[in-house]
Design a protein that fits this description.
Blueprint: E1 4-7, H1 10-13, H2 26-45, H3 48-58, E2 61-62, E3 91-92, H4 99-109, H5 116-135, E4 143-148, E5 154-159, H6 164-167, H7 172-189, E6 196-199, H8 202-224, E7 227-230, H9 235-244, E8 251-256, E9 263-268
Parallel strand pairs: 1-7, 5-6
Antiparallel strand pairs: 2-3, 4-5, 7-9, 8-9
Helix pairs in contact: 5-7, 8-9
Region (Disordered): 1-27, 51-87
InterPro entries: Jag_KH, KH_dom-like_a/b, KhpB, R3H_dom, R3H_dom_sf
Protein name: R3H domain protein
């Protein structure tokens, strides 16, 4: 008989999200919201959002592909041999007067590594806006390290100062910060080029934790011949769970619920149903 349980491993969450580090007090999160609101108000006053609206209306020409759904997350209950896809809505690119921007676009489409000049161009955009945002938090002496991932994407890691507030519970504040920075980069390039923002390698540590949570949940589902529901996670972390268990034919995963309470459910698959 199948059973379902809620899997919320305090032993994992306590590693770097203790009350003293991330969720210290309600006032800290009120300060975070106030700082981000002040920053966005300044950008609105400077005309940033009107620039996005103008660009969207005049330069972005949606193609027929725009009507297709964007695949951001997947379920491992489909094919175990299915390749992981990360599709983005494509728009017709309007060449820039800046040859560096055109080169970045061409290399992105071809999935090729960027040149040092191209990486420096993107880094200047990211660092400028990151420092501006951090200034609203009173952080003026932080360092920002840039490096590349295995897939040639750019990662910017912030270190120094009291930066726990930038992470937030389960990294939700950090994801919001990354979204803001990507908006600035896209506005400068006039096409979507994703960058990753990290704080003192939080995402590296969190990735290992989420993978460990996924494996532990799969083992529990197998032992109980039932379902295990994980704690709510961000879309990026849910995707990590799906990927971690993609090759395990004894379990299937799917996401259910509504943001911000959407979670992954790991389900035991009977042997006669395994392929």
């Amino acid at each position: 008989m199948s059973t379902e349980s809620q899997f919320m491993p305090d032993s994992f969450d306590s590693l770097d999200e203790s009350d003293s580090q991330v969720n210290r007090s309600d006032s800290m999160f009120k300060d975070t919201k106030a700082s981000l609101d002040a920053f966005l108000a300044q950008q609105r006053a400077d005309g940033f959002f009107s620039e996005i609206t103008s660009t969207s209306d005049q330069e972005y020409k949606p193609s027929k592909e725009d009507k297709k759904p964007v695949q951001r997350e997947f379920s491992s209950s489909a094919s175990k041999d299915q390749h992981i896809k990360d599709e983005h809505i494509e728009t017709e690119y309007v060449p820039s007067d800046n040859p560096v921007i055109n080169a970045i676009h061409d290399h992105m489409v071809a999935r090729e590594a960027l040149s040092e000049e191209e990486k420096d161009f993107i880094a200047s955009i990211v660092v400028t806006h990151l420092k501006s945002i951090l200034g609203f938090f009173g952080e003026t002496s932080v360092s920002i390290d840039e490096y590349e991932s295995e897939t040639n994407s750019l990662i910017f890691d912030i270190s120094g100062g009291d930066l726990a507030v930038l992470i937030g519970r389960h990294g939700f504040t950090l994801e919001a910060l990354q979204t803001i920075i990507n908006a600035f980069v896209s506005n400068e390039l006039h096409f979507y080029y994703p960058v990753t923002i990290d704080v003192e390698e939080y995402k590296v540590r969190r990735k290992k934790k989420v993978e460990a949570i996924a494996l532990a949940a799969a083992a529990r589902a197998r032992n109980r011949h039932g379902k295990v529901s994980l704690a709510p996670m961000s879309p990026a972390e849910r995707r990590l769970v799906h990927i971690a268990l993609l090759g395990d034919s004894s379990v299937a995963t799917h996401s259910e619920g509504v943001e911000p309470h959407r979670r992954v459910v790991v389900t035991y698959v009977r042997k006669n149903r395994q392929r």
